[in-house]
Amino acid sequence: MIATEQGSRVKVDREVTARTGPRPELGPAFYFLAFNLANVFYYLFLLAMAKGLSAQDYGLFVAMFGIVHLTAAIGNSVQVTLAKFTAELSALGEEERLGSLLVAAAARAIGLSLLVALPFLAGAPLLAAFLHSSSPIPIVVGGLVVFLTLLAPITWGVLQGWQRFFLLGAVTLLNSVLRLICGLVLVLAGLGVSGALLGIGLGLLVSGAVGLGPVRKAAAGRSGKPEMGAVYAYSWPVVIATIIVATPSSLDVVLAKHLFAAEQAGIYAAACVLGKVIVFLPLAATFVVFPKVVRGQAQGEQTGALLGLSLLITGVLSAVVASVFMFAPSSLFATLLGSDLADAGQILRWYAPAMFSFALVIVFVYYNLAAGRTSYVSKVLLPGVLVQIALWLVGGHSPMLMAQMTLAGSGLLLLASVLYWWSPWRETKVGAASGAPTGAASLRSSYR
Description:
448 residues
């Protein structure tokens, strides 16, 4: 029996190597490089928009970008869910079942994207008034972008679960490059905030299509009709988690646009744009570790060392960037953002350590989701973000104070995440070991 299990594992490992290429160990390194190059283009895009738009329009753009990012967190949950089940089914040698899951997931993702985008479009006039926009057109364009951000993660999730980091890295980089080129061209053409948002949509559309080939091939080999109960049971905590994760770095700019004068809102938005690099820079390491944790859990291996590695990489990279922002001279911000937004540097000195704390929180979020410890969402993540929102509403009387409240909320959430990891009331067993089937096992049983 043991020899049979070992033989099956060798076969699965060979299949993984065949998918990822002859040098699969280079895949994570390439993805890490491509992901961070994509972040460079992402920030060039945001800086180009800061240069190309007026302070008032830039405040509206960042607020819209925050709304798109917040609602598209549902799309991120699609990616996380598909990555988990793809990795589990692959680890258990159930590749032939994956096609049915992909077809079913794609159909539901299309319905979900319509469900989210259509009310967004219908409420454009009200949202335009809330954000003090003179036209609802940027809101409508934002709704179309939301539609695309809910579909593209289908491709990305499967590639991540398969650990096809070469292709995933290439698609990620392509998305960011096209966003910069298209957005800049459209803004220079006079389309303003709508042009900047259209650039985001075009990048998603093209990059999603490029990565579709392997997914279509897997879907073509579908067999049977999967019971989606296990997928839904896992996906709902993931949906909540990804929306919550997007909140501390997105909702604040929306509230700032509503609470502050246009110039103050633009300055706060500029600080947030720069500060988010602290979160995004090490994020590739978390995405690489996620399917490895899922695979290790499915095969009964210990994965705590992967959490430690992710925290180490994230902590070092985030600390370096946060230190630069905290101690950089004001002239740097004037050069990057222009004289109108140079005051963002003072706000960033508080916002940078907040994003450092939040970057470490994200490591805990994805690790617990990969390990199947979904109670982390209800016990730690949701209460922590509710506290953060309360701090903003109570103390958000100025951009500086709002940044300080962001630091307080992120610090509390990080402390709670560490306590959860060491506490006896977190799940210590996952899946079959705790008497309940794992996600992949539940999915697999539905075919029999």
